[in-house]
Structure formats: C-alpha cells, structure tokens
Write a structure and sequence with these properties.
445 residues, Rossmann fold, 2 domains, four-stranded antiparallel sheet, 13 strands, RNA-binding
Length: 445
RNA sequence: GGUUCCUUAGCCAAGUUGGUAAGGCAAUUGACUGCAACUCAAUGAGCAUCGGUUCAAAUCCGGUAGGAACCUCCA
C-alpha cells in the first residue's frame, strides 16, 4: 500500500518510504509539564497516536518517541508558586498527561524521555557543537551560531533578512546575532546542573536533538511531528543543530498538526480561554472528544463547539449501539466472535494512507455501521456477515483509537437476555421492562 | 511590515495529475414499534465574489472581499 504524507519540508504530498524496510521511527514533541493539559495539547497526542496505530496495523514495526520537557522557566516559576520542588511538580503533571492521553484513547509511546534524564548527553552534544564552531560561549551561556547554517529557515519558509528587520526579534547584546538561540543558560535560580561553562540548564531546542540522537542509532528518523507553531523557531532550530552535527535535517518527513479553537478563537494561555482536556473528557467522554478531533483532517483547524460535540456524541452512541448489538447476537448464538474477516477495511486503509485522511476513513466506518444495522434488522440473521462486520468495527476502532467496548456475556447474562425475549414475546411487559433495564445497566443492550 | 493558509448545504466536513459535488449532525416525510431508546428509507448545495485559461474548473491563473495562524512561551 502506498502511504503518502504532506511533508512540511517540501510543502507537498510525498510518497512515504521508510529508512529501513518494514520499520518506522517517529518522534513527536511533547509537552512542557507545569499544568494540566488543555484540549489543544491532545491534538498531536491523538493525531500521531492514530498514525502510529495505522502504521502498526498495516505491518510496520513502529518506534514512537515523545518527550516531556521537565526543565523550563515556567516550571521553575510554577514550582516556586506552589512551594514544591521542580521534580514533584513535573512528576505530577507527567502522570496527569499520561492519564488524560489514555482517557482520550492514545497508547503510551514506546519511549517517553525526560530532559532531566538527558542532561549529560545534552552537555556532550553542546560541547561538540562548540568544537565545531557552530556554538559559542559567552559569560556562562552557550548560543548556537545560526550563521553557520546555509539554509536556515527552510522549513518555515522564513527569510533571515525579514526576521532581522522584524521588530519583534529580541535584543540580547550577548549574542552575535539576534537569530542565535540559547543552548545552555547560566542560572542560579531553580534547578541547575554543573557544566563546563558553569552552573546552568539546557535551552529548549537541544533536548529533542539529543533524544533522537541517543535513541535512534541512525541520528536520522522517518517522521518528526508536532504542532504547527513549533515549526518556527523550535523545529527550525532542531534542524540547524542537526545540520551542524550530522549534515541532515533530523527527519525525512516533517508533519505538523493544526490547532483546536474554541468559538473560532485560538486557545492560548495568554488569551486565557484554555479548556482543560480532563474537564471535557469527564463531561463528554474520551471517544467523543477524540472523534471531534478525528472528524477533521489533521492539517485543518478544529473548532470545538456545542454543535460539533453533540454531533460526535450522536455518532459515538450509534457506533456503540451497533457494536454491542452485534456482540450480543454473536454471543447468544455461541459464535466465535473473533473469527470474522474485515469488510470495507480496504477503502478505510486507503483513506488513512492518504496523508491520514481520517474524515474519509470515518465515512467507511459509517458505511460499516449502516450495513450492520441493516443486517441486525433482518428477521433471519446472517451470523457470518455479522462476524465479519464485528471484526471490521473492532479493527477500525483500534486504528482510530476509539475506545468502544462490548460486554462479554456470562451464561447468566445469556439466560437473562433469553428470559427478556420470552417474557416480551408473552407480552409480560412489566417483567420484560425490568429485565431490559437490568440488561441496559449491564451495558449488554 | 514579512511568511503561510483558509472561504464547499442550517452546522461539521471530504474532495487539486481539471470531467458535471463523499460522509456525518440537525430538519422534514414515511416505515418499524406494547412503551422508550435504537434502527431503516427518502428529501437539500453547483463550491465567498469578479474575471481569465479550457471542449470542460470547487479544482489552474489573476483581481476583490472576509477570516486565521506564525514571525514572542505555547500543541
């Protein structure tokens, strides 16, 4: 199957060819952990988890790495505010992030490195950059020398001269050029480490490079993902460091997800319209929140509104209901529930392979649901067909990360259901209604 | 100011190697039904606007209007 991705490096859709046959290496920039994740943080978590599930399903051996930034000014400030150590603070929010990610249906990446575990490697990496004259030391700080890199700005299409003219470039007289960025910051406040340049802590842009360098032996990976806003400067700076170190752009394919808006306005900490993911998930459920995200292509903005949420709620109910009814029929008839061959999955996978077109993939899921409902209405039930549809739905739910479940029936459950049917047939509605509510409580109906 | 992008039915949304618009939600009508829920069927747009290229454009080119993001910590 041909898989295509929109590569931000070329601004075009490209055929995916992994570096090693049958294997995929991918890295996604993770969060800075100083607060509960907001719903916007969940977009890359959902998008790249779905990508990983899809690649795994079609047979790739995927190594998925996503980091936690647990060293940062904001963390230091927040821990002072909360009167905790940085470690206490970050450990708590890392757990929260993992919990929320799981609730929205995302699997844990294979590796989730933290900056604090990589300080030694980061120092070594920076030392090498200094030796290569791609970095310079000023007064305990280390800066990257952007002028060393020929095509700096190639990812975001930013012209260096425009940047230099722009009024918003910070002034820092220590730096040779305003474009140069900090690799190591001298500091006495907050957590810090000894280094050849004195006490300090690493800058943000180096950690991803070092983690990729350490975890992936090629020093080059297939897919690098992250939010659109990370393109500049973060990813540009990652590329600059890798160019200096290895003469490569770190990753073959650069994928960027768009944002989640609320009421057509970007959610951001400075605007103050941040909605915490855990609150939304608690209110509407993980699958519904995930479906709102997957309903739109990952490069388009998603707008969370009452209407989009309620549409997704309806759909999740529809999927759940059909799935449970099939499971019920198969189990009542003592059919092996896992014996089916998937139908409709071909077109589903083709949509996914087309730059992760989840909207079109979902259309195939709805076709499957409709087929299932039509079959369930038939007086004579085709068990083989239902088994196939069950397998289809199971696989699609898996790939999309929609945590929709069915109840495994005990013998008692089966008896209960049969009794429900027989009392209903005998028009003992007071009895059958009670049985029905029990069955619904047990999530069998 | 620079860069990138968007505008498709009430709402969400897919669709660019050009050939007469997927899907979902809501709505209306009908079917099923002891009741409830669920479910099934049928019904709607010529693609912001103006102009160009073409046998043919939502899809290519140009103008106009409106909107967004990045250039500053942010997914």
């Amino acid at each position: 199957m041909d898989i295509k991705f929109y590569n931000s490096l070329s601004n075009s859709v490209e055929l995916f060819k992994p570096l090693h046959e049958g294997k995929v290496s991918m890295y996604v920039c993770g969060p800075t952990v100083y607060n509960y994740p907001h719903i916007g943080n969940m977009r890359p978590v959902v998008v790249f988890d779905t990508l990983r599930r899809f690649l795994t399903y079609v047979g790739y051996d995927v190594t998925y790495v996503s980091n936690f930034t647990d060293v940062d000014d904001k963390i230091i400030n927040e821990s002072i505010k909360e009167n905790k150590t940085e470690k206490e603070l970050t450990e708590f929010y890392i757990d929260q992030f993992k919990k929320t990610s799981a609730e929205i249906g995302s699997l844990l990446p294979n590796v989730t490195p933290k900056v604090t575990e990589y300080i030694k490697a980061i120092i070594t990496y920076i030392q090498k950059l200094v030796e290569l004259e791609a970095a310079y030391v000023v007064d305990g700080d280390v800066y990257f020398r952007v002028s060393k890199i020929q095509d700096y700005g190639s990812l975001s299409g930013i012209n260096i001269n425009d940047l230099l003219v722009g009024a918003r470039v910070e002034e820092n007289i220590k730096k040779e050029s305003p474009l140069d960025f900090a690799l190591w910051k001298r500091t006495s406040i907050g957590v810090n480490w000894d280094s050849p340049w004195g006490k300090g802590r690493p800058g943000w842009h180096t950690e991803c490079c070092v983690m990729i360098d350490t975890i992936f032996p090629d020093h080059f990976i297939d897919i690098h993902g992250g939010g659109y806003d990370l393109k500049f400067p973060h990813h540009e700076n990652e590329i600059a460091q890798a160019e200096a170190m290895h003469h490569n752009k770190i990753a073959r394919y650069w994928l960027h997800n768009a944002f989640i808006n609320f009421g057509n306005e970007k959610m951001s900490k400075s605007v103050g319209n941040v909605i915490l993911a855990k609150d939304l998930i608690e209110k509407y459920g993980g699958p519904t929140c995930r479906l709102v995200i997957l309903n739109t292509h990952y490069r388009q903005p998603v707008n969370f509104t009452d209407e989009t949420i309620s549409a997704a709620t309806q759909e999740v109910n529809k999927m759940t209901s059909a799935y449970r009814q099939i499971a019920l029929q198969l189990q009542i008839n003592n059919v092996d529930i896992n014996q089916g061959k998937p139908e409709y999955i071909e077109k589903f996978l083709l949509a996914m392979a087309d730059d992760l077109n989840t909207a079109n993939a979902l259309a195939e899921l709805y076709v499957t649901i409709k087929d299932a409902n039509q079959n369930l209405r038939n007086k004579e039930i085709n068990l083989q067909k239902l088994t196939n549809l069950f397998k289809t739905l199971t696989d699609m739910f898996y790939i999309l990360g929609l945590n929709i479940t069915y109840k495994k029936l005990s013998d008692d459950d089966k008896l209960l259901y049969k009794k429900y049917l027989s009392t209903k047939a005998d028009k003992q509605f007071d009895v059958s209604d009670k049985l029905r509510s029990i069955l619904m409580e047990k999530e069998i109906l």
